[in-house]
Amino acid sequence: MEKKSLIAIVLIAALWVAYFIVFKPESPVKKPVEKKSDAIQKEGGAIRKEQASVRIEAISAGGAEKQISVKTKKFSVTLSNKGAVITGCKYLERNIELVVKKNSFNASGVLNFGVHFDDDEFINGNSLDTALWTHRQEGGRLTFYTDIQINGVPVRIEKIYLFPDDGYGFRVEYRFKNYGMRTISFKDSAAIVSPGDILGPSLDYNNTYNRLMSVYSINGSFKKADKGGGGFLLGCGSSSNGDPLKKETGSITWAGIMSRYFLVIMIPQEAVGKGVVHDNRKQAGFRTGLYVSMENLEPGKEIKKSFKVYLGEKDKKKLTSVDASIIDAADVNRLIEPIRNFVIWCLLTVNRLVGNLGWALVLFSLLTKVVFMPLTIKSTESMKKMQQLTPKLNEIKAKYKDKPDIIQKEMMKLYRENKVNPMGGCFPLLLQMPFFFALYSALIDSIDLWRAPFIFWMKDLSMPDTVATVMGYNLNILPIIMTASTFLQQKLSTVDTGGQQKMLMMMMPVMFIFIFWSMPSGLVLYWALQNLFQIIHQLFINYRSKKEKAG
User: Fold this and answer.
1) How many CB atoms lie within 10 A of CB 184?
2) 394 Cβ neighbours under 8 A, 6+ residues apart
3) Is the separation of the CB atoms in 87 and 99 below 8 Å?
4) Which of 310, 495, 506, 538 could form a disulfide with 265 if both were Cys (CB 3.0 to 4.6 A apart)?
5) What is the DSSP string of 270-326?
6) Residue 212 CB-density burial (10 A; 0-12 exposed, 13-18 middle, 19+ buried)
7) Residue ranges per domain, the chain?
8) Burial class (CB in 10 A: 0-12, 13-18, 19+), 316
9) Alpha-carbon span 522 to 526, nearest angstrom
10) pLDDT at residue 58 tops 90
């Protein structure tokens, strides 16, 4: 779950709890270069210069670029002998293209599974990226190879893709064969391998929820890294701090790229990685490189590095079907996961009946309101009793105005005698918050709810309901409706308050409009519906109360 948005949701819960406490009645990529790198990198707070010690030159096979196709039960893959890269990959289960050609930040538009020999090559590329590799195909096994010179020593590099007939994983192998008479030493005894610089589906990457991120496991801990996104309040701008690379050293069991709904992960098989590196330039794609150990390559010898690759949805079952170690990449909070799964199941089940996820969300909102209705009624009764105690509370405050400890003690005594819980008003809200968190998680991460339409201008409940862009800012309707309904609900359910409390009461919905502005419209719709149902309920309570007084 996006960290900044999670903080915002926690803030919402805190604001609502505070409300019941405060307002209770009391009153472009460069061409490959072959030169020594002078790039300055940041690592562990220290700045150090990287000097390249490996100089390579690929000997192209010549001829024209060729496209090679492989089809499995899960994917339809297209590869090119230019760079030995994946140029197309359709995810057949959902008919989604995972290799995005057109994008807003100069990504190459391929999954290249490239290999580079220093940080400078990782940024600028090397001649392997553009060389025409010789290839041969045997079913789902594609072998690409090219001859290069490494510091003047002839070496053959093979890149082998092995696609099984079924499953969400495949393998990539790199083989380095020394045909020369001298031993080759690699810089820092490592090479950098990376899956690519973009991952589908094609989305509006200016929205904070659509950002690409690096994901990796370092020293046994799951971590994410990004370089910024969009949004009205949350995630504005870019977190890129000017350093071309971000690096972290440690034991890396896997690393890859995460889009909003999909993952591509490389899992080293011979040994764990030595570290990760992220391309931190704002307009240069989004690449995560994995440092892998490279032994000295002696004459006549071969070095082999192989990787399992997961390519698929952020789904725990699918992840573990490839490798159990990558389950954390699903990026689902374990505390809300059971409720999240229940919410998704409810929405999809109702959707099968009504044929529209928007109406399914309306019915789900109504269902949660009905389920929590007894608690809401009890909360309303508690607030009514609190209102009746207001004169006595004011007397206590006036009598012991210079003795706050005694005021607190006497107030609690009064609550006990009248069987009133001062926090009773916020209990229903607190009990509903897990469902709110779960719905939030489902709308931002579940591909089952992607592009879910509703009615009128609401075309995608997983995105803000933008109807126009004014002076560079998106105009969203639902947050405005939600804010207005919050004002009305407060007006109907609270008694007259003092000036300071009245100001706070006015400010809270205004804060909500900023917090909710760039959130998925389905989440804002749910909150607005809860307000609407509460308004109807409160109108009924007020009508009944007036009728009782008149009788």
Assistant:
1) 21
2) 26, 27
3) yes
4) 310
5) SS-EEEEEEE--TTS---EEEEEE---B-TT-EEEEEEEEEEEES-HHHHHHH-GGG
6) buried
7) 3-26+336-550, 60-330
8) middle
9) 6
10) no
Cβ atoms 8, 213 nearer than 8 A: no
**Tokens 């071969």 -> residue:** 302
Residue type, 266: M
Q: What is the mean pLDDT of the chain?
A: 81
Q: Which helix (H) or strand (E) holds 460?
A: none
What is residue 52's predicted lDDT score, i.e. its pLDDT?
40
Q: Tokens 């082998």 sit at which residue?
A: 160
Could you please state the CATH topology (level 3) that the domain comprising 60-330 is classified under: Beta-galactosidase; Chain A, domain 5 (2.70.98)
Predicted confidence (pLDDT) per residue in 97-109, tens digit: 999 876 666 677 8
Q: What residue has token string 């940024």?
A: 123
**Which sign does the torsion angle of CA 517, 518, 520, 521 carry?**
positive
H-helix segments, 149-220: none
Give the angle 30-31-34 at the CA atoms, nearest 5°: 115
Amino acid sitting at position 300: G
Q: What are phi and psi of 169, to 5 degrees?
A: -125, 160
Both tokens of 280, joined, read 């931190």
User: Contact 252/279 with Cβ under 8 angstroms?
Assistant: no
* pLDDT digits 0-9 by tens, 284-320: 778 899 999 999 999 999 999 999 999 999 999 999 9
Residue whose entry in the numeric block shows the structure tokens 């005594």 = 413
**Helical (H) or strand (E) element with 23:** none
Query: 10 Å Cβ neighbour count for 273?
Result: 27
CB 294 within 8 A of CB 140: no
The first and second tokens of residue 201, run together, are 């589906």
Q: What are phi and psi of 471, to 5 degrees?
A: 55, 40
Residue type, 378: K
Strands (E), 435-534: 466-470, 473-476
Helices (H), 355-449: 357-371, 373-399, 404-417, 427-445
DSSP state of 107: -
* Nearest in space to 292 (alpha carbons), one of 279, 303, 281, 282: 303
pLDDT tens, residue by residue, 168-190: 999 999 999 999 999 999 878 88
* pTM summary value: 0.80
The answer to whether residues 268 and 292 touch, using CB atoms and an 8 Å cutoff, is: yes
